[in-house]
Design brief:
Length: 110
Amino acid sequence: MSLPPLHLCFFLLILSMFVGITWYINYESIFEGIFDQFKLLLMLSPLLLLLGIHLLSLMDSSFSFIPFPEKESFHNAGGTPWGVGLVLVLLFFMISYQSDFRERWFPLLA
């Protein structure tokens, strides 16, 4: 099996670049909306995970397939993880808007 001619490879490269650029221009706004919603999901995922763990800990252990320790051991460990979840949400929010915060807080450095 031999390689295709160089002219054909060059033509296919140019054609695929043209199709890719026009496809990107047509669907850029759609992708931006999808990525914004994906960022929101990533920012809310620690909170949703903590909520799910909290709901699982409230369930009766007879209905659960996962063996849980006694309920008192959660409270003896130092409280609920809601504070950690709020700090994580704040941290993800600040990371996603880092450039905006930098421009507002340090305008001379931007």
